[in-house]
């Protein structure tokens, strides 16, 4: 009879894996053996828990003890103290999981308490490589319901009623897209999943695929039934090897159980799923470029119309949705559209997963109901800005989005609201910036990315964004004039207006947004040739302060001999010769050299 | 898998396995597992409790351990938390533990003679 | 009857078929939206963003060349927003372009130049980095200069879709994108067949022909040499366009006159050699039919086609006729028969040819293309290069009096003329073969079934007691379709004519440039072919075997068709080629 009384969940997301969760797993197995607890404790490797800041994460049930930053050498202690003797090791707990000696379980920690995990429901709970665990948590019940109790139109109506909108960034009403594809004429149709998550800093889709791949399989089967397809493709970027692997295993197991293949649940419905890998092109996340890539062609967007719903893969009607969009489908079917649209706002129903990054304490993934304010996300759930620095801006939507400032912190998060405020939801990246960030540099970072990722087909994106970047470089080097700001503005608007696809049309957004909210920083760079945040290297000067003791250490190490001064007297740097290498700063024994 | 019934069967079987991860159990049994407890024989008691709970498929019952409960001379000890109330069983062994499961947990009758109150008389 | 939709363009209401694009619809009301990358049926991609228009209700500007019309659409084609966008996009293209217009061979006929002039651009706005340019002139036919490329994609599509080959594509990404062969190899290292279709569609000077006019000028200056020239049939159908004549004007007489003025000792006609080819090839076909030789027999006069079959379908090499092309036959006869007859040292004879073709420049260099140790042809210039020479010599083409070809190698029949159009070789061959087989002199000598620009044409003919299944394909994508059908056994033919260029030689890679605007509204292949067919119809002799100069050639010199001497001078062989050969 089973003596298992405790489950040790080890996070197997990419972040924690990179930090050593595999060896943690090994060590636990060893320790359990040592203390003879193998029959009483189960080790479960799960998907991403979301609070990546706290990784590697280990959660012990039934207590829900939330250990963070776990190292190999901690394992034996956890095994002996907690698993054997029942004493939770307090000094290894996540900092928010213990307050005044009162231990909070993982569900009670602020980071998780405020979240409503729908897409991430199973992440961090189940072992994604065991299909039975997915089934234990209601897996494939939705598919069963759809195939035996609902017609194609019933399914589509339910999705429409739920108000679900595309989570990849477009925010297009999913039910409507499903309806178009169902209505399209054609005997062969396809469903496809866009798993080419490319925004820098975004890893929502990755976590879903790593932690709950069956949710996608089930959702795609439901979608295929609804629109009349029998084949599906998951287009996933090759830079997600763990996700690819988990998905492959999941597909295998689903096939074994007859949940993929011919006559699923003994009905007329057959469905098969294939994985297609990307090859390092952000533009292949654009729906028509993705389709070209699946067809084996160069990933360049097609003009629309015709839309993929009518002419997609191999010119057949194709339904293409994002991973997170799919992740919501099984629960909408099981719990009903009303349940879903009771969460969130009127026009933006349900929840959204955000990847919190940048200057924030709790870096990681959060899933919150639409309508939550930015302030709540950043300060309540995110834990605020580290080192007591002041909040400056938050960038949403990645390289397609814009930034929001302090005055907008109490705005509700929703598709239309963010657009109204000059940004966009995008796929869910949220990067927080503090007083030490230079907003011009931030804009340049994103534009640099889009310039690199442009496919090169259309003139405004291929040529225009590069010229914009050249102007930004000039600004950051202190070589620009005020006229350049006008040129930048005109060019940005023209590119937005005439580019062929979403990449080009949104590439100027970070620039336009920062120019709108932080114009003074741009002007400072141009007119004063200064960067207050201290980021733009060429605008900084290295100076020797009065703390100088005249030891000549800096003089000796300077590669261009630009420091003058006698022994025991104040040294001076010749700014015209200085190449800003910083060697002198490192060498100074009394920290008398600064960069400003 | 040919039918929804098959799916349901698999689900029920798997749910038992993962129930340890559900943190909203109605009944919590906490076994004292400090050095004193272990040397007094708390482990076999713990194992028996777990075994019985699993055997009887008592989904709402959580068995966990803790450190020293305090009353070391009365080890092995376990406490039953239910509806905000606590019952402390002392001087336990596997046979008594089984009786507590049957009478108290399943049928709702506290086994008074094993409780700490009884031992103090 | 197509469904019509009602739309409004610049305030004007109109009704157009729902298959129209906004571009086509605008033309109906006299608005010519400017385009750059667009080329009808070849490049409809919406990449350059010059043709953008404003559509009410749409958030962004829309590319009119690919946007289908829909009911109730309201379009503005020249609002300030549109004009500024067009101009800026054009300026962006110019910023990354090699603007050495004065020394560029496309000066005056460049579509980018014309557009810049019309839209009034300034080139000051976007100084910055420039894409690295590649210059590749290793091929004897095509010169590639990517510093002038505007990445319109026309060449990529014409090579990939129209010709079914695809040796050019976009390489790298974003600002670094170039149009190049795989791994940016040279054209000589990939299976480029030198058809030159890419040159024809390139709006700028990124793809041009190898200029060989210097060779001709040098030869003409050399008093030691006896310089003669031959002209291909297709040249006369298009040369006039270089001098302002409308497309479809035949200028044979003036062309001959201009060549005489340039200083050629004799001006002959490739059509003469075309008639000769028919003699050889017609008898070869009959021979194979009667003696169980390899069938179907496929024509071999198109060097682009020969390059194609050697690279892609070497299994069909035995099906090729062993005849050299008319150009090569001419050269061989010039340096033997003609030399003897006029007592000229063959080593001193310089044979130049004017061709509509750039593959011919490579053909003359093939090892087998010689006789008695002398190259059949010494230099090839295209129709475009001839026009250049005429202009450089300041000859006033339009005022020239018509002149005639010289005797001995200058007489031709209508059968020779129609070689320049797709189906022409087939028709010419049939006119002779039919007479030979039946022993008759048939009056009904037009075979309309083999004419026209349908990609693959078929005809079955009863000739005496022979049934001949004939097929014609033009453009190598169509050739491939045909060959696959033969391979799979689906089709069975006796005689096939294949031309590498869509439409035949009239649309060869060396013909005058026709800008996209014109190409989008008329089919130049059809218009130019009309010149040839009407010249054919007006000639007294229309069958190759009736050509008295040809008859003289055989009786005085060659003997029998396919005889020993004919084989020595006029026939050749082929070999399989390595597609990717770094040492080509």
Secondary structure elements and pairings:
The complex is a heterotrimer of chains A (596), B (121) and C (584).
Chain A: E1 6-11, H1 14-18, H2 21-34, E2 41-46, E3 58-61, E4 65-67, H3 75-84, E5 98-99, E6 102-103, H4 110-113, H5 131-136, H6 141-149, H7 152-162, H8 174-183, E7 190-195, H9 204-211, H10 213-227, E8 231-236, H11 241-256, E9 272-277, H12 287-294, E10 318-322, H13 323-335, H14 337-341, E11 351-358, E12 364-369, H15 374-381, E13 391-396, E14 402-405, H16 415-420, E15 429-434, H17 439-453, H18 459-476, H19 482-498, H20 502-506, H21 509-517, H22 519-528, E16 542-544, H23 553-557, E17 563-564, E18 572-573, H24 583-587, E19 593-595
Helix pairs in contact in A: 2-3, 6-10, 6-13, 7-8, 7-10, 9-10, 9-11, 10-13, 17-18, 17-21, 18-19, 19-21, 21-22
Chain B: H1 4-18, E1 27-32, H2 35-40, H3 42-55, E2 61-66, E3 78-82, E4 85-89, H4 94-106, H5 116-119
Parallel strand pairs in B: 1-2
Antiparallel strand pairs in B: 1-3, 3-4
Helix pairs in contact in B: 3-4
Chain C: E1 4-9, E2 12-17, H1 22-28, E3 52-55, E4 62-63, E5 74-76, H2 80-95, H3 111-119, E6 135-136, E7 142-145, H4 154-162, E8 169-171, E9 178-180, H5 197-201, E10 207-209, H6 213-221, E11 226-231, H7 233-238, H8 252-262, E12 266-269, H9 270-291, E13 297-298, H10 303-312, H11 326-342, E14 349-355, H12 359-363, E15 370-371, E16 374-375, E17 379-382, H13 383-392, H14 414-417, H15 424-438, E18 456-463, E19 466-474, H16 476-487, E20 495-499, H17 516-519, H18 524-538, H19 548-558, H20 564-570
Parallel strand pairs in C: 1-5, 11-12, 11-14, 13-20, 14-17, 19-20
Antiparallel strand pairs in C: 1-2, 3-4, 3-5, 6-7, 7-10, 8-9, 15-16, 18-19
Helix pairs in contact in C: 9-11, 9-15
Q: What do these coordinates show?
A:
The complex is a heterotrimer of chains A (596), B (121) and C (584). Chain A has 596 residues and is of the alpha/beta class. Chain A folds into 5 domains: 107 residues, Glutaredoxin; 210 residues, NADH-ubiquinone oxidoreductase 51kDa subunit (Rossmann fold), CATH 3.40.50; 84 residues, Roll (Ubiquitin-like (UB roll)); 90 residues, NADH-ubiquinone oxidoreductase 51kDa subunit, iron-sulphur binding domain (de novo design (two linked rop proteins), Up-down Bundle), CATH 1.20.1440; 55 residues, 2-Layer Sandwich (Alpha-Beta Plaits), CATH 3.30.70.20. Chain A has a 5-stranded mixed sheet with strand order 12-11-15-13-14, sandwiched between helices. A 4-stranded mixed sheet of chain A has the order 2-1-3-4, covered by helices on one side. Chain B has 121 residues and is an alpha+beta fold. Chain C has 3 domains: 75 residues, Ubiquitin-like (UB roll) (Roll); 101 residues, Alpha-Beta Plaits, CATH 3.30.70; 358 residues, Rossmann fold (3-Layer(aba) Sandwich), CATH 3.40.50.1780. Chain C is globular and about 75 Å long. The chains are: A alpha/beta (596), B alpha+beta (121), C alpha/beta (584). Chains A and B meet through strand 1, helix 5 and helix 6 of A and helix 1, strand 1, helix 3 and strand 2 of B.
């Amino acid at each position: 009879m089973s003596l298992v009384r405790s489950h040790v969940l080890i996070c197997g997301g990419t972040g924690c894996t990179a930090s050593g969760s595999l060896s943690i797993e090994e060590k636990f197995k060893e320790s359990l053996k040592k203390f003879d607890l193998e029959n009483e404790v189960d080790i479960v490797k799960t998907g991403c828990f979301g609070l990546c800041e706290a990784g590697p994460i280990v959660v012990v049930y039934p207590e829900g003890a939330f250990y963070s930053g776990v190292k190999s050498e901690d394992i034996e202690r956890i095994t002996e103290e907690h698993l054997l003797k029942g004493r939770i090791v307090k000094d290894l707990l996540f900092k928010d999981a213990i307050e005044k000696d009162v231990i909070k379980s993982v569900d009670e920690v602020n980071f998780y308490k405020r979240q409503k995990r729908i897409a991430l429901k199973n992440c961090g709970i189940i072992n994604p490589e065991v299909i039975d665990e997915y089934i234990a948590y209601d897996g494939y019940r939705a598919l069963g319901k759809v195939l035996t109790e609902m017609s194609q139109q019933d399914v589509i109506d339910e999705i429409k009623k739920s108000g679900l909108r595309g989570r990849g960034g477009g925010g297009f009403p999913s039910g409507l897209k499903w309806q178009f594809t169902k209505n399209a004429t054609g005997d062969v149709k396809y469903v496809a999943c866009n798993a080419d998550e490319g925004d820098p800093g975004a890893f929502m889709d990755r976590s879903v695929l790593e932690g709950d791949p069956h949710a996608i399989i089930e959702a795609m089967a439901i979608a295929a039934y609804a629109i009349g397809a029998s084949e599906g493709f998951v287009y996933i970027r090759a830079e997600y090897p763990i996700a690819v692997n988990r998905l492959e295993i999941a597909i295998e197991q689903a096939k074994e159980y007859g949940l993929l293949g011919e006559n699923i649940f003994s009905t007329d419905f057959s469905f098969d799923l294939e994985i297609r890998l990307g090859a390092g092109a952000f533009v292949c996340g654009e729906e028509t470029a993705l389709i070209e890539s699946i067809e084996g062609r160069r990933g360049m967007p097609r003009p629309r119309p015709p839309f993929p719903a009518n002419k997609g893969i191999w010119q057949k009607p194709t339904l293409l949705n994002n991973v997170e969009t799919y992740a919501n489908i099984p629960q909408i079917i099981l719990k009903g559209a009303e349940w879903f649209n009771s969460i969130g706002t009127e026009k933006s129903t349900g929840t959204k997963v955000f990847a919190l990054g940048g200057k924030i304490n709790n870096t990681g993934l959060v899933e919150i109901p639409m309508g939550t304010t930015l302030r709540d996300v950043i300060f309540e759930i995110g834990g605020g800005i580290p080192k007591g620095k002041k909040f400056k801006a938050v960038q949403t939507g990645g390289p397609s989005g814009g930034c929001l400032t302090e005055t907008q912190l109490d705005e509700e998060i929703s598709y239309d609201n963010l657009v109204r405020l000059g940004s966009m939801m995008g796929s869910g990246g949220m990067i927080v910036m503090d007083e030490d960030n230079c907003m011009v540099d931030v804009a340049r970072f994103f534009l640099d990315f889009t310039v690199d990722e442009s496919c090169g087909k259309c003139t405004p994106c291929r040529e225009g964004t590069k010229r914009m970047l050249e102007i930004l470089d000039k600004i950051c080097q202190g070589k620009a004039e005020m006229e350049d700001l006008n040129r930048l503005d005109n060019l940005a608007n023209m590119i937005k207006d005439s580019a062929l696809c979403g990449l080009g049309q949104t590439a100027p957004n970070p620039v336009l947004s920062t120019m709108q909210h932080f114009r003074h920083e741009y002007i400072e760079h141009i007119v004063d040739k200064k960067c207050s945040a201290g980021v733009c290297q060429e605008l900084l000067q290295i100076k020797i302060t009065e703390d100088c003791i005249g030891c000549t250490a800096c003089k000796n190490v300077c590669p261009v001999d630009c420091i003058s001064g006698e022994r025991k007297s104040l040294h001076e740097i010749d700014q015209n010769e200085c190449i800003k290498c910083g060697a002198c700063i490192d060498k100074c024994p009394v920290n008398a050299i600064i960069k400003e | 898998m040919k039918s929804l019934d098959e799916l349901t069967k698999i689900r029920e079987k798997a749910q038992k396995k993962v129930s340890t991860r559900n943190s909203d159990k109605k009944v919590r049994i906490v076994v004292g597992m400090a050095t004193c407890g272990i040397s007094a024989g708390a482990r076999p008691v713990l194992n028996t409790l777990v075994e019985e709970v699993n055997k009887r498929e008592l989904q709402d019952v959580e068995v966990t351990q803790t450190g020293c409960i305090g009353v070391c001379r009365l080890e092995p000890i376990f406490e039953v938390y239910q509806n905000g109330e606590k019952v402390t069983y002392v001087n336990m062994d596997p046979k008594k533990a089984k009786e507590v499961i049957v009478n108290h947990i399943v049928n709702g009758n506290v086994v008074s003679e094993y409780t700490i109150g009884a031992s103090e008389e | 009857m197509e469904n019509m939709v009602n739309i409004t363009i610049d305030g004007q209401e109109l009704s157009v078929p729902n298959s129209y694009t906004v571009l086509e619809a605008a033309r109906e009301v006299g608005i010519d939206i400017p385009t750059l990358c667009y080329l009808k049926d070849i490049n409809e991609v919406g990449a350059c963003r010059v043709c953008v228009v404003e559509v009410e209700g749409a958030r962004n500007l829309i590319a009119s060349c690919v946007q289908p019309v829909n009911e109730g659409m309201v379009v503005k084609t020249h609002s300030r927003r549109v004009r500024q966008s067009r101009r800026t996009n054009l300026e962006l293209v110019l910023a990354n372009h090699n603007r050495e217009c004065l020394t560029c061979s496309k000066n005056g006929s460049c579509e980018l130049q014309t557009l810049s002039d019309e839209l009034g651009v300034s080139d000051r706005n976007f100084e910055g980095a420039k894409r690295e340019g590649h210059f590749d002139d290793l091929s004897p036919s095509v010169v590639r200069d990517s510093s002038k490329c505007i990445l319109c994609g026309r060449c990529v599509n014409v090579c990939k879709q129209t010709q079914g080959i695809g040796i050019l594509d976009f390489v790298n990404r974003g600002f670094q994108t170039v149009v190049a062969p795989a791994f940016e190899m040279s054209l000589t290292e990939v299976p480029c067949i030198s058809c030159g279709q890419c040159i024809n569609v390139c709006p700028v000077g990124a793809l041009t022909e190898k200029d060989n006019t210097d060779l001709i000028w040098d030869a003409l200056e050399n008093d030691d040499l006896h310089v003669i020239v031959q002209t291909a049939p297709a040249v006369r159908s298009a040369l006039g366009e270089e001098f302002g004549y409308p497309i479809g004007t035949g200028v044979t007489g003036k062309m001959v006159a201009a060549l005489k003025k340039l200083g050629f000792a004799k001006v002959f006609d490739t059509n003469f050699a075309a008639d000769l080819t028919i003699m050889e090839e017609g008898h070869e076909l009959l021979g194979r039919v009667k003696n169980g030789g390899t069938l179907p027999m496929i024509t071999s006069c198109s060097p682009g086609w020969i390059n194609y079959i050697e690279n892609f379908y070497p299994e069909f090499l035995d099906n090729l006729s062993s005849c050299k092309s008319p150009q090569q036959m001419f050269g061989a006869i010039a340096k033997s028969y003609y030399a003897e007859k006029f007592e000229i040292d063959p080593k001193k004879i310089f044979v130049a040819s004017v061709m509509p073709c750039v593959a011919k420049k490579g053909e003359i260099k093939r090892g087998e293309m010689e006789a008695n140790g002398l190259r059949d042809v010494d230099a090839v210039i295209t129709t475009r290069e001839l026009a250049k020479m005429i202009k450089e010599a300041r000859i006033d083409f339009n005022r020239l009096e018509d002149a005639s070809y010289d005797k001995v190698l200058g007489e031709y029949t209508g059968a020779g003329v129609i070689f320049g159009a797709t189906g022409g070789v087939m028709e010419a061959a049939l006119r002779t073969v039919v007479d030979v087989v039946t022993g008759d002199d048939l009056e009904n000598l037009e075979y309309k079934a083999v004419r026209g620009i349908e990609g693959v044409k078929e005809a079955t003919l009863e000739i005496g007691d022979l049934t001949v299944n004939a097929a014609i394909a033009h453009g190598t994508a169509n050739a491939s379709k045909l060959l696959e059908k033969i391979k799979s056994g689906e089709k069975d033919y006796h005689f096939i004519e294949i031309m590498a260029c869509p439409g035949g030689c009239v649309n060869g890679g060396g013909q005058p440039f026709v800008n996209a605007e014109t190409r989008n509204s008329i089919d130049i292949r059809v218009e130019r072919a009309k010149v040839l067919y009407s010249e054919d119809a007006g000639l007294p002799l229309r069958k190759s075997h009736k050509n008295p100069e040809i008859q003289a050639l055989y009786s005085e010199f060659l003997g029998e068709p396919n005889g020993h001497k004919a084989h020595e001078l006029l026939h050749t062989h082929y070999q399989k080629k390595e597609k990717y050969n770094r040492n080509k």
